[in-house]
Amino acid sequence: MEVVEVNSLVLAYLGDTIYENYVRHFLVRKNIGHVDLLQKEAVKYVSAKNQSAYLHKLIDNNFLTDEELDVVKRARNYKTTSHPKSCDIITYKYATGLEALLGYLDLSGRNTRIDEIMNFILEDEKC
Predict the structure, then answer these.
(1) How far apart (Å, rounded) are the C-alpha atoms in residues 42 and 13?
(2) Taking the model in full, what pTM does it have?
(3) What number does CATH give the domain 3-125?
(4) Which of the following is catalytic: 16, 36, 88, 115?
(5) What is residue 124's predicted lDDT score, i.e. its pLDDT?
(6) Number of H-type helices and E-type strands within the chain
(7) Angstrom distance (rounded) from CA 103 to CA 12
């Protein structure tokens, strides 16, 4: 299977689980002991609005390679008209771009790069 040929939404489907898993591990390591609190904190990271903001942060800091930006753009530009009611279509497409990038890197066996991206995203939150 050629990873570049995988549908962008399929990459995002996979990337969503990777992203959420990193966030959950991060929050558990912060010693939050109640599931309700964990869920409330997780929503702050996994919302499309925040995923979009994190992607913009990566882009603004020139953190992504040209290849990674191409994956993000392909997913962002994928034709879709549906999106959650909680955000606009542009925000949703950027969030999808971040998720697709993580899925792409995972299928490419680039777990170290996923670590670097997720550490960059979560670095401001580490206490």
Answers:
(1) 18
(2) 0.90
(3) 1.10.1520.10
(4) 16
(5) 60
(6) 6, 0
(7) 6
